């Protein structure tokens, strides 16, 4: 069955329907990863966004029970060039189409995703929607033009209840802004006794758990929307070890007085080069962000930049000069992507060890 992809600039692309038919307006973003569509679709940082893959053949290894980054995906749509409906992989349990239908995510294939990517690179990300072919396209374009980008996505994907993931090691409170399960996996692998808390949990409650450290997760949307967590982080700094990933990184920077801004078309892919400014080593990283920390604004804070993107020289990591606090804009848990930055979880463990020895 035919389906349309309509962009706010009035362009209309004709493709073939798959997945669900629950259409929602979202920000159309592109991801350049060659593999990892399961991890991408289930990464709740994409809440409010329609993801378009530049790699031309998607679906060929199906969907499995191991690789999802959340149990309830929040991606608004999925756009690809060619769809493979006969997956071939021993771990595959269902097709991508079955998964998207089951989780209410609409898809479209037969789209020249690379041509649209060139457009987004030139003009920036745009609002877009998938639609049935008989829709009133002009009215739809007008709606897209008038619509605001979605706000406050974090509350849609954060847990509403505190829950433990018990273990015998360091006690870590994970503030869930839409946390990828890869972060849980990396901390659990290192023995961390996790308490997962909602995004709006007060600092006193968090400190009441007597944590060795606090992990600030990735999450969707504009970091400036999450004012309540920025205030919480201000109160946590200096009282416990803190490690932030992606949205968590942006929130630490805002809490310390730095600024964030929206990138023209973001960084989404599995091979973004980042230089570690302390060692000069280049890490190939997995990324998914549309906002970034303003490097100039770090000057008036107690933060120093530790990592920088080699493609566009934007800020990719910071460290606090007085307290045990550090963060990165990219994804050291990978999933999907290269493992070069996995050492950052070891640094978090070492930081908690060191603070315990000083206590
Ligand atoms: N993966 C993330 O945590 C993304 C952070 C933020 N929503 C951004 O787009 O920049």
From TrEMBL:
A Gene Ontology biological process term: L-arginine biosynthetic process
Range of residues in the leader sequence: none
Keywords: Amino-acid biosynthesis, Arginine biosynthesis, ATP-binding, Glutamine amidotransferase, Ligase, Nucleotide-binding, Pyrimidine biosynthesis
SUPFAM superfamilies: Carbamoyl phosphate synthetase, small subunit N-terminal domain (SSF52021), Class I glutamine amidotransferase-like (SSF52317)
Name of the top EC class for this enzyme: ligase
CDD domains attached to this UniProt entry: GATase1_CPSase
Region of interest called CPSase, as start-end residue ranges on this chain: 1-170
Catalysed reaction equations from the record: hydrogencarbonate + L-glutamine + 2 ATP + H2O = carbamoyl phosphate + L-glutamate + 2 ADP + phosphate + 2 H(+); L-glutamine + H2O = L-glutamate + NH4(+)
All residue ranges annotated as the Carbamoyl-phosphate synthase small subunit N-terminal domain in the record: 1-131
Annotated binding of L-glutamine, by residue: 45, 219, 221, 247, 250, 288, 290-291
Gene Ontology molecular function: ATP binding; carbamoyl-phosphate synthase (glutamine-hydrolyzing) activity; glutaminase activity
Pathway membership, UniProt: Amino-acid biosynthesis; L-arginine biosynthesis; carbamoyl phosphate from bicarbonate: step 1/1; Pyrimidine metabolism; UMP biosynthesis via de novo pathway; (S)-dihydroorotate from bicarbonate: step 1/3
Active site annotation, chain numbering: 246 (nucleophile), 331, 333
EC number: 6.3.5.5
Family: Belongs to the CarA family.
Binding partners and assembly: Composed of two chains; the small (or glutamine) chain promotes the hydrolysis of glutamine to ammonia, which is used by the large (or ammonia) chain to synthesize carbamoyl phosphate. Tetramer of heterodimers (alpha,beta)4.
Annotated HAMAP family: CPSase_S_chain
Function: Small subunit of the glutamine-dependent carbamoyl phosphate synthetase (CPSase). CPSase catalyzes the formation of carbamoyl phosphate from the ammonia moiety of glutamine, carbonate, and phosphate donated by ATP, constituting the first step of 2 biosynthetic pathways, one leading to arginine and/or urea and the other to pyrimidine nucleotides. The small subunit (glutamine amidotransferase) binds and cleaves glutamine to supply the large subunit with the substrate ammonia.
Name recorded for this polypeptide: Carbamoyl phosphate synthase small chain
């Amino acid at each position: 069955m035919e389906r349309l992809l309509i962009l706010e600039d009035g362009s209309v692309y004709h493709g073939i329907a798959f997945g669900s038919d629950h259409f929602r307006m979202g920000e159309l973003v592109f991801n350049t990863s060659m593999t990892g569509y399961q991890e991408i679709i289930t990464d709740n940082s994409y809440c409010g966004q329609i993801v378009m893959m530049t790699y031309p053949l998607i679906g060929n290894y199906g969907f499995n029970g191991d690789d999802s980054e959340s149990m309830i995906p929040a991606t608004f749509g999925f756009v690809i060039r060619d769809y493979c409906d006969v997956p071939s992989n021993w771990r595959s349990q269902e097709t991508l189409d079955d998964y998207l239908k089951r989780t209410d995510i609409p898809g479209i294939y037969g789209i020249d995703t690379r041509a649209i990517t060139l457009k987004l690179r030139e003009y920036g990300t745009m609002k877009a929607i998938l639609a049935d072919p008989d829709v009133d396209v002009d009215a739809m374009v007008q709606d897209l033009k008038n619509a605001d980008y979605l706000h406050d996505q974090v509350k849609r994907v954060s847990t509403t209840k505190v829950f433990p993931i018990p273990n015998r090691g360091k006690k870590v409170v994970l503030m869930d802004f839409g946390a990828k399960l890869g972060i849980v996996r990396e901390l659990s692998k290192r023995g961390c006794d996790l308490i997962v808390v909602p995004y709006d949990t007060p600092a006193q409650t968090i400190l009441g758990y007597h944590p060795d450290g606090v992990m600030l997760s990735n999450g969707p949307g504009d970091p400036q929307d999450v004012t309540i967590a920025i205030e919480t982080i201000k109160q946590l700094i200096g009282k416990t070890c803190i490690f932030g990933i992606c949205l968590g990184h942006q929130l630490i920077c805002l809490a310390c007085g730095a600024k964030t801004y929206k990138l023209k078309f973001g960084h989404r892919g599995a091979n973004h080069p980042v230089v570690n400014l302390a060692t000069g080593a280049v890490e190939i990283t997995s990324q998914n962000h549309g906002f970034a920390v303003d490097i100039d604004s770090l000057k008036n804070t107690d933060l120093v930049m530790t990592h920088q993107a080699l493609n566009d020289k934007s800020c990719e990591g910071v460290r606090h000069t007085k307290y045990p606090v550090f963060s990165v804009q990219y994804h050291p848990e990978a999933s999907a992507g290269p493992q070069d930055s996995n050492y950052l979880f070891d640094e978090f463990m070492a930081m908690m060890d060191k603070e315990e020895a000083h206590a």
